[in-house]
């Protein structure tokens, strides 16, 4: 298993990244600095998380060379449209304090305003052509959104970041990604959304995952991350606790057997825990993203 993945435009991306969704802005610099000190070389943030400044601060404090870190961020739906999305890039790099992004993705499809979504993607294509982003992609795009996008896109997205954990592996979307040559990146890779949102069982307490973890002397989170990596996906676990940041990176010294991967595959409950991409609207989810 390779710890680096090659995107469809040959850009290389560390498979295991560090997420910062819900990381408070004033804790983000420390979390990112800790992650980089631990060995992570890929950070996933978003304009909508309100902590891009902290990510930039952590990056600088770490003293890791900028060129050694893969920085990924997302454009929020309120900034969709050609000019607005070009400007969203300026806002993000201004807050991050970097000149170039390694990966810029659309955070959500806007099914009721797909015209705006397509224009936002056209802006990403222009940023790629300008050389100020190294790769572009999407997030939470279902097969129908990818099909719609490909009617006007000239660049196939490099990445589609989707909710993906043992209870919701979204095989239909992964298959659509594979058909188009798009790399699947898992958000809530250890099932965070199954336990930080009320109303369902936690993947961390799953007996099958727990059994596999015990057999390897590893934790349930480590087993889930290994399940992603061995199946060729990128995963971006989030934590603000140093011991968990380290635990989630310590996944390169063991391997799951095919039967173990299959046993985790069989845990699919077919129930989405995050927002339903088909019904996401500007009216409900739109909110202004501040200037840099
Ligand atoms: N594109 C999208 O729409 C979207 C949506 C959601 C997330 N994301 C991205 O994906 C990243 C990861 O997803 P996520 O944050 O939803 O969920 P996650 O990484 O699966 O889980 C994070 C949760 O698990 C806890 N945790 C972390 N490591 C642990 C461990 N080893 N053992 C036990 N608990 C642990 C964290 O708490 P502590 O911090 O207290 O450790 C946090 O509550 C996000 O940070 C974000 O970058 C993207």
Keywords for this entry:
single chain, 292 residues, alpha/beta, TIM Barrel, eight-stranded parallel beta sheet, binds NADP nicotinamide-adenine-dinucleotide phosphate
Provide a quick synopsis of the model.
With 292 residues, this protein is α/β, with parallel strands linked by helices. Helix content is 41%, strand content 13%.
Give structural notes:
The protein is an alpha/beta fold and 292 residues long. It has a single domain, classed as TIM Barrel. Helices cover 41% and strands 13% of the residues. It contains 12 helices and 10 strands. It has helices at residues 25-38, 52-62, 82-96, 114-130, 143-149, 171-180, 192-195, 207-216, 220-230, 242-249, 258-265, 282-285, and strands at 4-6, 12-14, 18-19, 42-44, 70-75, 103-106, 136-139, 159-163, 183-187, 234-235. The chain has an 8-stranded parallel β-sheet. Strand 5 (70-75), helix 3 and strand 6 form a beta-alpha-beta unit. The protein starts with a strand and ends in a 7-residue tail after the last helix. The structure holds NADP nicotinamide-adenine-dinucleotide phosphate. NADP nicotinamide-adenine-dinucleotide phosphate (NAP) binds at residues 19-21, 44, 107, 139-140, 161, 187-193, 196, 204, 219, 221, 236-241, 244, 247-248, 274. The site of NADP nicotinamide-adenine-dinucleotide phosphate has 29 residues, from helix 7 and helix 10.
